Amino acid sequence: MAEEQEAAGAKRSPLVGYLITGAFVVVVPLVLAVLVFQFVVKPMVAAPEEAAHEEEAHHEEVADAYPVGAAPVEFPDTQSAVLSDDPELAAPVLIYKVAMVAADEHSMHILTEKQVFFIAMLDKLHRNRTRSELNDPQTQEAILKQAKQEANLLLKKLDPTVHEGVLDVMYVKFGLIDI
Q1: What span, in angstroms and rounded, lies between the C-alpha atoms of 22 and 85?
Q2: What pLDDT, on a 0 to 100 scale, did the predictor assign at position 9?
Q3: In angstroms, rounded to a whole number, what is the distance separating the alpha carbons of residues 118 and 27?
């Protein structure tokens, strides 16, 4: 038996042994280096970058904050007819309530004093829309953006001295009711 083991050991070439040893010498440190980089170095480098991104996001949030004199003006609940997607069904009714954030006291005074103009403008933006349109969040946002633009134009018409009248328009209530 001992002779068989010696014969098997003698048959194996020393070149194969060198290749196996060389593979272990190269592959094992390479795998360890990749693991150390992936789980130790990369998270340490990424942490300051993430902190910088969080700080930038915080600055953007603060930049989007309303000024000290800003105040919301709520408009009364309003109903509007909605076009039905299916002509055989009854037309649903949209019930909504909008609030506008006035930039200053002067703009807020005009919004409350001349409220009828703004209610008519909002009604015009919501009228003759389909149910599927009004269910789409992008359409709702588009209506609010358009309402802000039109409100600022209307404020300029009512009082040309107003510089930045409406900062934001938002829904306080928004619902579609089937009758």
Answers
A1: 73
A2: 53
A3: 73
